[in-house]
Amino acid sequence: MILLCGPCSAESFEQLYSTAEILQPFSIDYFRAGLWKPRTRPNGFEGVKEVGLAWMKQIKKDFQMKIVTEVANPYMVEKCLENDFDAIWIGARTTQNPFIVEDIATALEGTDIHVMVKNPLNPDIKLWLGAIERLEKSGVKHIMAIHRGFSLSYNRYRQSPLWRIPLELKQLRNDIPIICDPSHIAGTTELVNEIANTAIATGFDGLMLETHVNPQLALTDAKQQLDKKQLKILIDSLPIVNKNEKSETKELTMLRNQIDDIDDEIIQLLSDRMGISKQIAYIKKSTNMSIFQIDRWKTLLDSILKNAKTYDLDNDFVKEIYEIIHQESIKQQNLIITKSER
Ligand code: PEP
Ligand code: MN
Q1: Which residue has the least CA distance to atom 6 on ligand 1?
Q2: pLDDT level of residue 341 (50, 70, 90 thresholds)
Q3: What pLDDT sits at residue 152?
């Protein structure tokens, strides 16, 4: 199993050094730290940038750990190459943009640094594959994919795992190792374990785990970085998977992951539907329309049942579900109307 650990961001030499010290017993494959930090809004901590290059180089020398950081343009690639980085990763926001990926790929021509490609923020497998292919066209030989979750509105994690996408990538490109980054998916340390376990049980090749000597003091992603004790608990809890064995449990986990994704989507859609239904309540109220419109309900149910038939779904099953949904909509609309009357 490939293990990449280290803080979200490099903050000071002391912080990097003491984090590397706590990581030493885990014989990790790569020490990670972000030098240039992509932030959603300006004026936050945007990384120590070039200053941290020498710190990382020192970690590599003193701890014999391979070092990796995020790059988002050819200048950052050049700086990493000059400072003996073993690998670089392309962040989610960069994978999103084929122009920038192309520039990075061009900057990598003729080098043999390893490159990790995080999935784009939106669940588009073509963008992820496309970034990998652009790098390959420039002659990059050692590529790994990193699954870090997707930005969806409804989600009980910080980012939605949408397991079916990395699993599809794995099927299409089984020559490329795929690593899971449970830290960015979970967003909080309590959920990192379950994501890491699912990933390993499903056959991922490794984990990228944000680890900090003192997570409470971290300047970025403080809630999701593991301390030494939490990292040990996580690693000890991982299932042992025999890669060569075609195991039914692995298959079962994969299928269950897909069910979990679909259930997340069903909940999101129900919530969206209820939201719209509530907006309708205000219009009904202002136009003095009655809540229950029998004609509308009949046409709606009719078209749903026709649709269900084309998908081979049982008529009574779908009818029952929709009766429940409709009843709940009416209940919610009633609540809004009676509340505003008071
Ligand atoms: C990170 O790994 O710290 C990071 C910023 O990753 P991502 O591109 O997945 O958000
Ligand atoms: Mn982070």
Answers
A1: 91
A2: low
A3: 82
pLDDT (tens digit, 9 = 90+) per residue, 56-83? 999 999 999 999 999 999 999 999 999 9
Closest C-alpha residue for ligand 1 atom 1:
8
Q: What pLDDT, on the 0 to 100 scale, is given for residue 126?
A: 98
**184 CB under 6 A from ligand 1?**
yes
Residue 91: CB within 6 Å of ligand 1? yes
Q: What pLDDT is recorded for position 81?
A: 98
236: burial class by Cβ within 10 Å (0-12, 13-18, 19+)?
exposed
Alpha carbon 35 to its chain centroid, in Å, reads 20
> Which atom of ligand 1 has the smallest separation from the CA of 32?
2
Mutation test residue for ligand 1: of 76, 159, 184, 208, the one with most atoms within 8 Å of CB: 184
- Provide the pLDDT for residue 246: 62
**Ligand 1 pocket, mutate which of 68, 93, 118, 209 (most atoms under 8 A from CB):** 118
Pick the atom of ligand 1 nearest to 92's CA.
Answer: 8
Question: What value does the mean pLDDT take over residues 243-269?
Answer: 81
pLDDT tens column, 132-143: 999 999 999 999
Question: Which pLDDT belongs to residue 40?
Answer: 85
The dihedral sign for the CA sequence 72, 88, 82, 39 = positive
Q: How confident is the model at residue 249 (pLDDT cuts 50, 70, 90)?
A: confident
Q: Which ligand has the minimum distance to the alpha carbon of residue 37? A: 1
Tokens linked to 63: 């701890």
